[in-house]
């Protein structure tokens, strides 16, 4: 159940190779090819490519009846210029692995090496290298792919590194661990006019000035409440960048966030009703569209129990501190059809935060993360 020193060296170098050549959401074609090539020597029993975009699933089958256990990592990087200064820094301008998905991928590749040498005693292992986590469409695309039925799991597990938590400690709890969220774009349309005669047009300016404070006011409760809701205005634009035209068009962007998916539906309805009311008062048409939709990530008690047992067996300290989080994670959709759980693995208290331009995944987490997953897999499948 342990990696060799050579394994760790090679996995570390491979992780750094991925780090140098990041690909953002929905563009992970080369990263997917790298994974297929790296796992070739492990002789998986089935490899599915192009799942939900550029997703890759490698299956290690015992040939005996038993559950299917899926472990998931993410392929995508971020549109951020790297400023870490490490030798293996991104070689792609404006793109970098500032969330550690390269490290998560290396952890799953470590499982591939081990199951390549010794298949589970029963059931199947699925290593799911998922695209487009950052934009929220990756997991949904994978699950919607007709071929996902060939690997549909009974259990699904994932991890995410977490700066600010002592190195190698785990954070895990049953229930909600990541919020549901979605980006809402509100489009207001009126009529342009010459700026010397604004009264001949219909400007969205008064409506925008009302919406900006009214949307955040839709939030409800504190984060500890099950009915917690939050609206954050993230962007607005109005008219053209000229002085001679009174505007006839505007957009307001907001992120809606809740702890429960049911509460999200209420929040969407409230935000749309508010925008329609304000638009009507000012003689504007209004329409909506939604982007980066994340369901809540809810850890199933049975799956959490398996992870807790593995953490204890591997001597990894754990607590429920910092959970749940306001941030979103698209792993939650796997929990709609499987017993699923995600845990968070401390990257160090002084490690730069995720999505910061100076972040770099700590390589020493590769053997720790793979050891925890391997223990959970062997406990379930032998």
- What's the pLDDT, averaged over the residues? 97
Strand-and-helix sequence, N→C?
HHEEEHEHEEEEEHEEEHEEHEEH
Query: Please, how many helices?
Result: 8
Q: Count the strands?
A: 16
Give the domain tally: 2
Radius of gyration: 23 Å
Strand line-up of the largest beta sheet: 1-2-4-3-5-16-6-15
What name is given to the CATH topology of the largest domain?
Aminopeptidase
Task: Give me the secondary-structure category.
Answer: alpha/beta
**Could you estimate the helical fraction of the residues in percent?**
25-40%
CATH domain class name of the largest domain? Alpha Beta
CATH architecture of the largest domain: 3-Layer(aba) Sandwich
Report the CATH superfamily of the largest domain.
Zn peptidases
Distance between the termini: 11 Å
Low-confidence stretches: none
| Shape verdict | elongated
Tell me the fraction of residues in β-strands, as a range.
Answer: 25-35%
Describe the main β-sheet briefly: 8 strands, mixed
